[in-house]
Amino acid sequence: MSIRHSGIGMTSQRTRMRMVERLRQQGIRDEIVLSVMGEVPRHLFVDEALAHRAYEDISLPIGFGQTISNPHTVARMTELARAGGDLNKVLEIGTGCGYQCAVMARVAKEVHSVERLLQLTAKARKHLRDARVINVRLRHGDGHAGVPTAAPFDVILMTAATTHVPKALLEQLKVGGRMIFPMTKGTTQHLSVIERTAQGYTEKKMDVVNFVPLLPGTG
Ligand code: SAH
Fold first, then answer.
1. 180 C-alpha to center of ligand 1: Å?
2. Using CA atoms, how far apart are residues 211 and 217, in angstroms rounded to an integer?
3. What would the mean pLDDT of 70-74 be, rounded to a whole number?
4. 219 has a pLDDT exceeding 80
5. Sign of CA dihedral 75, 200, 108, 182
6. How many Å lie between the centroid of ligand 1 and the Cα of residue 15?
7. 35 is an active site residue
8. Which residues on neighbouring strands pair with residue 60, listed in sequence order?
């Protein structure tokens, strides 16, 4: 096993457990989410030169002008996605480096993830293989369209900020399912949770966040 995998010093299990303690202090309550955050090797999802900073409470560059969210935001979105229960099928828009995908793959049976940049899809594929995550399907494409062939989803998680919710995504939610995404209004962004009910859709505004924008088409 290489040093990178065994996790020495700043990438060790102990460092990861310190991150979990911090997440607890920051208000993450779901014990399943906390234990998953303690298991997924976040340092395998960033460039080697940044691995020693992987467990700090910061977002990090993943190339191509994109970023991996800070651990608290990933944990919070996963907590909102779970809403206290196990998940069957999840769709993520914005695979990036694959870290959020790896976390979701531990709380859901099946994760589908779409990324508009081919280079990032390739990077994520390698990271997920290194971390031995198998229950994910990655696709290069425009997330606005979702993945109709795999719908309906229990949860749709979007990790890029938008001013409008793509209609196709709402249609791919199961009744009782939730879509969690950063919504931009003016100069601020909030996490938003849309729930599909038998009667329609309800929306709740949550924490202030800071995501890169959802872009049109494929890069
Ligand atoms: N969840 C990621 C965070 C990635 S940042 C992680 O854990 O690393 C947001 C990602 O959304 C970027 O990789 C960006 O390329 C992607 N993105 C932006 N617009 C998109 C679109 N229309 N369809 C699919 N992916 C998109």
1. 14
2. 18
3. 97
4. no
5. negative
6. 27
7. no
8. 68
Which value, to the nearest 10 degrees, does the dihedral of the CA atoms of residues 50, 54, 56, 57 take?
110
Distance 204 CA to ligand 1 centre (A): 23
Single-letter residue type at 47: D
Q: Is 176 left (phi over 0), alpha (psi -120 to 50) or beta?
A: left
| DSSP category for residue 135 | S
Mean pLDDT, residues 188-203 taken together = 97
**Phi, psi of 44, deg, nearest 5:** -75, -10
Ligand 1 contacts CB of residue 160 (under 6 A) = yes
| Closest ligand 1 atom, residue 144 Cα | 22
Q: Is the pTM of this model over 0.90?
A: yes
68 lines ligand 1 (CB under 6 A): yes
The CATH superfamily assigned to 3-208 is Vaccinia Virus protein VP39 (3.40.50.150)
